[in-house]
Amino acid sequence: MTSSSLKYSKDNTDKRLDYNSLRQLKEEAYKNLKKRVLKDDAIGINENGTFYLKGDYYEKQLRIALRNCGIIDPGNIEDSIATDGYKALADLLENNVSGQQIVDDMTRANLRGRGGAGFNAGRKWAEALSHEAPHKYIVCNADEGDPGAFMDRSILELDPHSVLEGMAIAGYAIGADKGFIYVRAEYPLAVRNLKIAINQAMEKGLLGDNILGSNFSFSIELRLGAGAFVCGEATALIESIEGHRGMPRNKIFRTAHKGLFQMPTVLNNVETLANVHMIMLNGVDWFRSIGTKDSPGTKVFSVVGKVLNAGLVEVPMGTPLTSIIYDISGGIKNNKKLKAVQTGGPSGGCIPASLVESTTVDFECLESLGSIMGSGGMVVMDEDDCMVDIARFFMEFTVEESCGKCTPCRVGNKRILETLDRITQGQGSEKDLPYLKELSEVIRDTSLCGLGQAATNPVLSTLRYFENEYISHVKNKRCMAKVCRNLLIYFVGEGCIGCGLCKINCPVKCIEGERKIRHIIDPEKCIKCGTCMEKCPVHAITLS
Amino acid sequence: MCNNKVKDDFTELKHIIDETGHEESALISILHKTQEYYGYIPRQAQGFIAHELKIPASKVYGVVSFYSYFVEKPKGKYQISVCLGTACYVKGAADVLKRLESELGIKFGETTPDLKFSIAQTRCLGDCSNAPVLMINDKLYSKVSPDEIPLILESYKEEVSS
Amino acid sequence: MIDFTINGIEASVEEGTTILDAAKKYNIHIPTLCHLKLHDLNVENASASCRVCMVEEEGKNKMIAACSTRVKKGMRIRTDSIRAIRTRRMMIELLLSDHPKDCLICPKNGKCELQNLAADAGIRSLRCEGERRVCTIDDDSFSIIRDMNKCILCKRCETMCNEVQTVGVLTDVGRGFHTVVGTVFDRPMHSTTCTFCGQCIAVCPTGALTEVDNTADVWDAISSDKTVIVQTAPAVRVALGEEFGMEPGTVVTGKMVTALKNMGFDYVYDTNFAADVTIVEEASEFADRFKNGGRLPILTSCCPSWIKFVEHNFKELIDIPSSCKSPHEMFGSLAKSYLAEKLGKKPEDIVVVSVMPCVAKKYEAQRPELGNSGNSDVDIVISTRELARMIVDSTQDFVNLPDSSFDRFMGQSTGAGTIFGSTGGVAEATLRTAYEFLTGEELKEVNFTALRGFEKIKETTVNIGGTQINVAVASGLGNARKLLNDVRDGIKQYHIIEIMACPGGCIDGGGQPYMHGNTEILTKRMNSIYNIDNKKHIRQSHKNPEVLQLYNEYLGEFYGEKAHKLLHTHFYADRSEI
């Protein structure tokens, strides 16, 4: 692995590159990088001279967006140039390729937005190109907020230039002169590396005025988020850049028509932009040969939860879910049984184990199962996870992050959460279930923005696949996964030796019993803190 | 607030704004830098920013209140979290909190004028057998009685002055 | 034209039409709570946030918001499907679940859009109750009560306050379920730069924003031993009838006077008389500044909202508004001096009540400098809406009341005094008098039609004795701000500027009967104002016989010393920044 040493040789800083000097620099930089790589056991060299990360975990993946992550030094633009960084941009400029041509290619490539919506990026570009305006903007959405997902962070931290080049190409294609990267303030390293990368690209004339000596000028500014998940939504993000509360706009115009400062704006996600370079360099047909017909290319997933090897996995679209969980991520921890896979973060849904076998990771398949691709979060759950509690957890997140603008998201999601709270506390009733379903559907169909529209996916998908768990919570007041504390009864079994440790440590003194005689817990007084179970030396206390 | 920085004439803040820009779209960047400088975003500073950017102060306040990253109150060097989970509650956490508040002269959610302590309440810290518990930064105190509070606080006060 | 179907009807509308507007054309009423379009005033609140107007597009999964979706060719829209109906109900239920539901004692009872919606939808129970936002009620100001527990976050008030009026007091505070429409640092309204124009009240669909109710104070005064005098503003008589189901714009002056007398007021007078006095003073002041090289332009000062706006926002222009008190304050001052003498009463034994189309007048009446020797010029201000409630409360059959006339001494008025109620009216009235003051000649054409209508900023140039006098009129504080910026920056030069805070003038005041978005009502009120003026025999203020009697018997010369003491005031530029 390379260390992120940010020392940067000052020798060439005053020299803005042109097409030829870029090619020369590439040769030189490649040699330097190769020299370093040869000394690094973790990195291998392919026959065609490109580099790869060694080991089964990486070699089973197809790393396109993550191509340079872990290989190059993100603090040194020459490393990026060594791996053909900015070559795609340079080729387009040198050959005077028209914006229309690029947009057509991108549309044909059908690179679908990796941030969640899955909209063909080329079509966004095409619309922005079609509108005349004094200014146009490229906005990179780096406000990755899904808990447990860190695809974008890795790319920003480890390969920032791939994003900058993608933005510059998009800018050239649609005729934009300025780009913004909206990045979470909670990612300080990403912010630092982006700042360095932008400065270095400016110094080298790869950004700024007259890029590589051409007529194309394009600059990029960093904007920091401030702790609002909803700013991942396109129009909320734009509002935030403009200095407002990050609340989504009404949808009378598309952002490609009237976006940032009411100008045509292309808003793409980090991973989407990181793909652009590869499409331009290797061609549309190459890109379409990867993945499925309707979802070409690869997707990066952040696989977490009960798998053996948690981490980022990039695979072709259409890869079976089982191959991600078992082949690459090493299967379920502690030999437990897989229960469900939650994809798409708080906006996604749960796929039950029974369907995991037949699931492939592409937009169509995931959506048909009531989940979404989302930005690529993937939480693997086993038999110890309560699906009602999982739904409740995600709703808690959404309610916390709702901007409060529209009624269904502001009030509706709150009511859903309250209902789930009641159910997990043993106060639910059977009447709650049809209401949950109807309200969830209304919220999905009526919310103003994507956050609200997807907010109830975790509820709807668990209701669909794990209805029995809901029924057991509301009817029998039982949590089969033993997660919902209020539904549990602590019970002293026959193994009790009457040592009294549980009785002494119980904070509410609800355990009775003479020494050396089996103790009894008063379930009425018990607050279910679990102390007794922890203290029992013979593990005689169980949950039922 | 007794933070000396707030009483200043906003020279540094003016500098921050001049550097960042006077247009409305610079607002969030300015707020970030303001918080970096003061440790929080004082209301006087919000008024000053509004004045400089020629926007209503209500707007600045609306923005500050929207983003969870921005805080309006300084946080203390030592953050005291009192567990108010069920176990701690029944074991007298409320009395612990009350004593803490009277010793420091602040309510929960507030910070002492010298910016040394702030009190937060928290959900279960997962240490029910040792209830009631409190945490100061990362250090856990178990089975705390209200009478122990002055002693615990003393150790931090000395640490600060040394 | 775009062809589509709505509820199975073949329909066609112009490109760019929203589904909401398209439906209206085919007599399909799609309910909404947040959307507000005031055509004549160029005001639109398009937050698309309440989601009550969701309709179904056949063959699509997502519902669409009718207010913010444009009709596309071939769309098949249903507003009457089971799904559309259920969705609408669910949305109303959600709003009600976060609402106090104390409708019987709510100031908006019977006039609330949420209440009507719930009634129309036949909501009988809520399937889901839960936490409600709990907010402290702000009733600290003299004009506006903010009860944010009743707010549904439609943001109409914010649009009025920030975009239309550019006052910038209201903002969303907080996030998510706990979002409220608040003020800077959650201050009460009286500690903000609020001008109390009340346009937020005028558009609020629920009881979240209402006027301070002073009706009980009026009943108390009437039942006391004091002499209670009431005056009615020009814009009240063209709107009050609406509260009793009469056609908008019906002139109900005579019935109103009868109703007030029946209620037990000792004397019923007309603010229009005081408006004539105002014009005499203001035209004299203009003539004085014009002839003696005083600072121009002169700005009208009859709108208290506007004055507070200047005090907060244009400190450098603080000496250009006319020093005239507003007409109802002039009335109050004269009632407790001139009239007191006539009636043989002590000023402290007189209570002056103003019936105004305005809620800012409530605040204005409390300004300490507006009074004499410890007696406030005006004691109690009620709005048109409050008067209507009192008339109902006193069991009067308003529609069938006979007509009566205003009482003597301060009840006679000219057409010039009448048009104060509409934007442009004060400037026009000033010109009618100033022309004759400056030239000594008779003005042939008293109608200055260029100054009439709903345009944001109106301008005209009048030749007075060889000098071209530039006049500008703005209504709505946002328009006023633009105009004043131009004046301050030297881009525009005027001699006379009239400003009214409410778009359209006092006929659209924050205390008028609710229009619920129907601006045709406003046009009718305005037409009626000019009709009254047209029918008047005397149409110039300085020819009002009672005004002349006032000066002859009591004040002495126009703009003289006694007039100064009683009829003029001063303004403050040192109001706080925030």
TrEMBL record, chain A:
Annotated Gene3D superfamilies: 3.10.20.600, 3.30.70.20, 6.10.250.1450, NADH-ubiquinone oxidoreductase 51kDa subunit, NADH-ubiquinone oxidoreductase 51kDa subunit, iron-sulphur binding domain
Protein name as annotated: 4Fe-4S ferredoxin-type domain-containing protein
Keyword Kinase: no
A GO molecular-function descriptor: FMN binding
Domain 4Fe-4S ferredoxin-type, first and last residues per copy: 487-516, 517-544
Keyword match ATP-binding: no
PANTHER family: NADH-QUINONE OXIDOREDUCTASE SUBUNIT F (PTHR43578:SF3)
Coiled coil (residue ranges): none
Organism classification: Bacteria, Bacillati, Bacillota, Clostridia, Lachnospirales
Keywords: 4Fe-4S, Iron, Iron-sulfur, Metal-binding
InterPro entries hit by this protein: 4Fe4S_Fe-S-bd, 4Fe4S_Fe_S_CS, NADH-UbQ_OxRdtase_51kDa_CS, Nuo51_FMN-bd, Nuo51_FMN-bd_sf, Nuop51_4Fe4S-bd, Nuop51_4Fe4S-bd_sf
Family: Belongs to the complex I 51 kDa subunit family.
TrEMBL record, chain B:
Binding-site residues, [2Fe-2S] cluster: C83, C88, C124, C128
Cofactor binding summary note: Binds 1 [2Fe-2S] cluster.
Cofactor: [2Fe-2S] cluster
Keyword Metal-binding in record: yes
Domain of life: Bacteria
GO molecular function, one term: oxidoreductase activity
Pfam assignment, any one: 2Fe-2S_thioredx
Protein's name according to its UniProt entry: Uncharacterized protein
TrEMBL record, chain C:
UniProt keyword tRNA-binding present: no
Keyword 4Fe-4S among record annotations: yes
Top-level taxonomic group: Bacteria
Domain 4Fe-4S ferredoxin-type: 142-172, 186-214
SUPFAM superfamilies for this protein: 2Fe-2S ferredoxin-like, 4Fe-4S ferredoxins, Fe-only hydrogenase
GO molecular function: 4 iron, 4 sulfur cluster binding; ferredoxin hydrogenase activity; iron ion binding
Keywords from the named record: 4Fe-4S, Iron, Iron-sulfur, Metal-binding, Repeat
Domain 4Fe-4S His(Cys)3-ligated-type: 83-122
NCBIfam families the record matches: FeFe_hydrog_A (TIGR02512), FeFe_hydrog_A6 (NF040763)
Protein name per Swiss-Prot or TrEMBL: Uncharacterized protein
Organism: Johnsonella ignava ATCC 51276
